[in-house]
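REQUEST FORM: STRUCTURE PREDICTION
Request ID: SP-0412
Submitted by: Lab K.M.
Chain count: 1
Length (residues): 128
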Amino acid sequence: MTTSMRVRRLVAGAAASGLLAGGAALGMSGTATAAPAAPSIATTTVAGDHHDHHDRCQWKHGHWEKKWVKGHWEKKRVLHKTWHQGHKDHHGKWHHGYWDESHIYKWVYVPAHWEHVWVKGHWDCHHR
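STATUS: Completed
RESULT:
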C-alpha cells in the first residue's frame, strides 16, 4: 500500500512540475510530453525521499527497565544519635544518661548499582 501511495505521489508531482515548467505549450500536449519524464523523476525522487518516514514510526509501550547507575556522592538525611553522659547537678542529684536523636543531612557515597526506572510510552521514529 505504501508503494502505491508513493507512485501516486510521484506521478502527481511529475505532472504538476511538467505543467508548471513547460507552460502552455506543454499543457496542450501534456500526456505526450509528461509521460517520458515521469520515470527519470521517479528514480531520483524515490532514492532521495526523506519525507516519507512517518510510516516507520512504532509505538513503544511504557515499561520498567533496568538502568546502571554509577557510584556517586549524594546528600542524604541520616539519623544521628548522641549519647549524653549521666551527671550530678549542683544539688548532688544524679541525672541518668540518655540518647538524643536528631536528623542531619550528610554527604554519603552511594556505590554503583542497578536501578529499575519507568520508561513512559513513546513514539520511536528511528530511520531503519
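NOTES: Helices lie at 2-28, 30-47.
Reviewed by: T.R.
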